[in-house]
């Protein structure tokens, strides 16, 4: 491009332009000036020097005769500049890269490790070692300071735990994370990893890197039990000889965020199914799918066997099942046909078994219909109103409710089955729930109050978030407390002593109570909008006041409208952030002495959490699902949209933005680009 | 940047520049013109329109007062151009990406598959199914044409097979590749993958994609035996029920490139070791290393146990062992210390056990010394003259020869052991060698002649390349044939009938024989340089002629100087390319009818290979080894160099260039950039 610019300058000077100057006026004066300058540049400088002076000088550009040439010149300059900047960028990156290699190695120096970290004291109910001091407690100045802070122990390394860690301000707590997996998994993209649209590395982030940011500690172990009295978590790990070793981790505050396990729904033969909870599941699924394709190509495989091997069944029509079916279909349709015999494409079938009458049944009906239409077009066989009864190694038995209400049992040959029918409680959570007895009544998850404190444990010590927990919305159960608080606040302490059955609440009293309910149960806010209407409706005797029975009836009716929060990454994320903000606020309040002053004012048992921070309020931001080169986005309240490639790019953008770190974002972008350039990797290893 | 350019233009117009025009002459005429244009632009256009007109117009740039400002303006323009071009590039990529999604799906159409492909005929010595027609033989026009071509069957999917496939011209052969792994593995970078410097995906390329380029077929199965008479390969595969299924694949030309297995050297306890032959080995090693680091952090791990867990032992001082030790050390030194307790770094030890007196003993001694110095500085414990006797789950027993010649037995506690002490023959190759009896005398590899034809099989049907094969350099064994050929050629057929023991070869005869030897054994060329000297040396009786015994002695002495070729990727690569070129030449010769004419001229048994192509000649291009943020490059013949980061970048560049596809190159570059940006991934999954 530079050669051209110089060539132009020279050839222009050879033209008889000088005599034309007068005729053309200003314009040609300018051109001759340019010619002189170019000529001077050309005669005085060479090579790189010339390039540089051309780039950074503000000398006018040579004036061309043709407009097209001028534009071409400008475009070439644009491209040239880009190449130069890119080149500088690449050289810069290499210089940076070279600086990242540790050429000087730290020699083995004395490291300050407390004796208690090397030989922990034994104790607790089972006389196990207690992790009172960590190996890295003295590793840095800030870690040394944190030793004296309250011990915050987090069980789990998923969405809840990581959101908490990312929001937590460092140096307020001595943080320890206990998780059997040393990585955080970006679960929403897991179906993409099963067929190689994304690589496994783009979905995981080392948990130690996340913990490092808050100066915390990591223990690779599994939580087994909690002693709420002595505030000890009992954890287990398998040592290198395969023996289980147990020890205690003490806490001041404990956050349970251990997630969930796959729900077997009591179906026999699930050992023949694949699951999709972990990164290894994704790899195993990819290997199995490719394995089946390869087996289908062999001459020893009969026709029936080939059709069976290529029959892919997904049990569960929720987002995971639907997205896996979509990704699988994409792979079969975009990559398989390139490299495998054409016969395979013809004999492949993808089936989706759903127990409800629609797939994606938690989504808006229009959107779930869109997904069904899409699948119908893509020849993905959606079987609704169907329940799996038993899984055999080579087939699935399921019952299907017909339109006339009769139930028919069917058998589907299958070569691969994914089981993704919802979640259930981990054995650890079941153990805790049993221990807490009557305080825990939910069979599916640990119950917390709206401050996310585990019911049945000392206030402000144990929290539960994410899939393993559910927020109990028992408004009516707190009726006495609501009445007491609001009347005390309005009429003084004496008003409360009266017999509740003799209460007659006027509209103003009701308004005060509603305010209390809203504060304590933010989820109820939506149902407390028209207070006058509610008052009129439940004032059955039209007395102009609500008596205790009428109030109770009103609150029970609100309870019935409150649904439990979905077991999604979004909820876990919000709960983690909520706890982090609360813990930050608590630390600030303690440090400033404000908390002590406030608690001194309180008359009843002090509720520290309520004093420093509001109750947890879930804000549903929407649900997404990828359905095969198209996506649906349900924003709640009937709003949402569905579409083709543009919706897919929107879906990707949202998850790109939500991804846990800059690293995973770069990796995801790279992997998507790879798919575009090279397709998916049809390899099993 | 644009805002600034406009701002400058405007502020310039506010200056009292108009009156100065006359004084400054041409220069200010130009500036006022620029001002007018800028003002016009600014008043008429806005936003993007303005940007574009500014970019593609050739109007002069506004003239600035200060030189620094001018330079800044130019630099900003440079950067701006780069951003614009980059933006266009990104948009372009998204448009391209969108085009890669199959939004229109091929409906299930009738696919033309031969009945014999679906129900193969049974036959052969064991009456197994015979893969005479492939499922995809009718999938495209070119595949249909290839059905009639000679069947080229390649066993294996490593360096040899892939080099052959990449060099082979399509449509000359009906190509079938049989390999139990459906990917090609870029073995030289395997040590990098064990610690996450590279991801696994960057090292593998789907074998189907490589085969696709020559319109070949792939069978995922394992070669078990070959029937050289009926020209059938017996292969086995495990079906989905875990049963072994066997079938035959017929061939006209067979290439055996099945590689090698790890050499156990008869040591007990290798089940406690890791190997590094496959991509899964790399993942298992990474998991084990991280697992040990995590176990070392737990409070239940005692001091001794921690030291043992962090004792990493590598058995074998060849390139694989050395590179793994280097990569491991890099990871421990660059990444581990960031995220794990400092104590770990102090207690880690890396040991390298080598049986010879130097590591990298096949390299130039200066270079191997450099590597040893580097390791000494890095505190990698190199144990030379040491032989492993037995591996226990938690320790290694080895004997070490002391300087005084005594042999001492030592025990080394270990938490991880890599076994990389060379290669040995696969069971398949052992079976073939046994079958071929006296034609195969080498215990370590299949013997071929210098045309890479497997000794003992019909000429021109079976070839063996790569690690599984060795080229037999038995010059002396061919003495009679050499004498016959050269004398026939010089003196006519009658000369050959004389008794060989009565031969008296003059220097000219010897020269003719040497020429024959060079042609048939290209590796001997180096030892046949001074023919006069050799003649004089072996003409013991100074008769001026060589008799038969003297000639034999001369050739035997040359034989003794010829070493067998190294079992490296480089050799396999060259052999694969050689075979492809020969097969291409053969196809051309057959097609042109030249071959038939040439063979008609031949008097003895026709040697088709020799007629169409020269014998295989290995050209050693050099050996590389990465030794921890530095590398050594041995170019042979005493040349070579070693150095720090620059050598590492050179080492990377060479492998980058050698990588199998554009895809793997892009992935490798991305992975190296990832390491620079984010470090290695310290996760196990």
UniProtKB/TrEMBL annotation, chains A, B:
SUPFAM superfamilies reported in the protein's UniProt record: EF-hand (SSF47473), FAD/NAD(P)-binding domain (SSF51905)
Alphabetized PANTHER family for the sequence: NADH DEHYDROGENASE, NADH DEHYDROGENASE (UBIQUINONE)-RELATED
Membrane topology recorded in Swiss-Prot or TrEMBL: Peripheral membrane protein
Annotated signal peptide: none
Compartments, as annotated in UniProt: Mitochondrion inner membrane
Protein name in the entry: 64 kDa mitochondrial NADH dehydrogenase-like protein
Organism whose genome encodes this protein: Chaetomium thermophilum (strain DSM 1495 / CBS 144.50 / IMI 039719)
Residues annotated as domain EF-hand: 526-561
Keyword annotations: Calcium, FAD, Flavoprotein, Membrane, NAD, Oxidoreductase, Transit peptide, Transmembrane, Transmembrane helix
One Pfam family per UniProt: Pyr_redox_2
Keyword Transit peptide on entry: yes
Coiled coil: none
Transmembrane segments: 71-96
Principal location listed in the UniProt entry: mitochondrion
GO molecular function: calcium ion binding; NADH dehydrogenase activity
GO CC term (a single one): mitochondrial inner membrane
Family: Belongs to the NADH dehydrogenase family.
